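Bit of a strange request maybe. I'm writing a small parser for structure token strings and I need a real example to test against, not something I typed by hand. Could someone generate the tokens for this chain?
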Amino acid sequence: MNSQSLDSIARFCIDQHDAFDANAWLRRGAADGKMVGVVAKYLSMSSWFGNETSLGRIATEIHPDTASITKFNREMRAISLEMVTFSETVRCGIAAKKGLSVDPDNAPAGGECASAPS
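Reply from user aminoacidic:
Good idea to test on real output. This should exercise your parser:
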């Protein structure tokens, strides 16, 4: 996944964190089903994003292969989603949007949010 694609999906996720809209995910999935399905599945397995059940259903609806963890892992590799980088980008963006500083225990290497999309 190139940095432009990462920033675009990260910004979408950051916006969705506070204003979750399942239909927005489905609309975005119509344009880029594999990436959105994989990201929705990843976030559905997180403990920090919220809306886990809805995201799991959305992931399966957009990209049915995400229902199988083996196929999900294969799809994640196919789109070159680096979970650590993606997670840091989204978490830092959420914190920045809320005007919060990042807890040093959860900060990216180096202790700052250099990866948050602008």
